[in-house]
Here is the input.
Amino acid sequence: MKKGIHPDYREVVFHDLTSDYKFVTRSTVQTKDTMEFEGKTYPLVKIEVSSQSHPFYTGKNVLLDTTGRVDKFRKRYGK
Here is the structure.
């Protein structure tokens, strides 16, 4: 394999902002944020939906609208 062309594959903390759930996995995602998790410092990736907050996995039909798209749709097509 050629050297210098592959991204850095390392352990990263993903933080689900909706449910405040954090987990460590390996990824090539680039991020500038870091976080101390279980006594070790990892790069941090903030996400809005994970298996802990997604309605399919939790069994709850909760409408998560973090960008206002549902309200915009209802305002435009509402009646």
User: Anything to note?
Assistant: Helices lie at 55-58, 69-77. The longest strand covers residues 40-47.
